[in-house]
Amino acid sequence: MKILITGGAGFIGYHLSKALLTIKDNHIIGLDNLNDYYDVQLKKDRLELLGINSNDIVDNKLCNSRTFPGYQFIYTDLANKEILQNLFRGEQFDIVINLAAQAGVRYSLINPEAYIHSNISAFLNLLEACRHYPVKHLVYASSSSVYGLNGKTPFSVHDDISHPVSLYAATKKSNELMAHTYSYLYNIPVTGLRFFTVYGPYGRPDMSPSLFAHAIFKNEPLKIFNYGKMRRDFTYIDDIVNGVMKVIDKIPTKNPEWDNQRMDPASSSAPYALYNIGNQHPVTLMEYINAFETAIGKEAQKEYLPMQAGDVQETYSDMTEMINDFGYLPKTSVEEGVRKFIDWFKVYYGYEK
Known about the structure:
single chain; alpha/beta; Rossmann fold; UDP-galactose 4-epimerase, domain 1; 2 domains; 8-stranded mixed beta sheet; two-stranded parallel sheet; 37% helix
């Protein structure tokens, strides 16, 4: 298959690309704007592992991997509509996987315009490209953040998501609505994936695993928000990639039993589907921190703080649809996942003695 992965230099984009390249017949093009929301060098290091030398990267031009014959990378922005349309016209993609987005809940309080640019305008350009140069399947990343004030757990794709608590979550909900509209109007097969707190090697430095690990290694206070009274459905990257790969091959169809008198957000009379991908075993924040202390062999200095704006007290994925449709279950416990993360972290950031 010829596959476009947007956000190709990102955390999930890198791991997914690497996994798909083990299937010899795949031709993958990664796309990323390499923005400086976090350390660009980390993004370049991920690309290096995919065989893309930083010196080969040129604006709006495809460059070839030196390691994987089936991989190419283009340094551009989805907001560049002309470049995107030309890319689709020339490549005729079978599958498009959209992992590009302005991430981060708290950053959306500081720079809301970035979220409209990257998560709304850029996503519209991608939908337009899929409309004019039809693909077999568009898979896009949503987020557990869309559940917002929903107090019923576990979170189900059949639940109402009318009350987001951050602009980031609102843009992700908007993506789901936009994707359904294009699926309905132009018969584009579309699948949305709500990811639950993904972590692992080469993860984002602004996420809790890196923040926790740095603080413990440096003997600095570890900030614990809502006084530790939170639970998260932490999901290891290998499980996420495994789930996405299963989804890619199942092209959604119109649900013949869909009832517009009892509308279900997870399916449609359009070729549209929606899934949670989580661990479905949430742990308390203190249990998660304890896993870091065990893996590092050092107790954290703890600083307890109130809840941050835009945050939620709990995330917990209902995986019924992933189990029923794909026989999918995550395999990595928090203890094992944190241990693998710390093994990588010590080497990458120079904490290895």
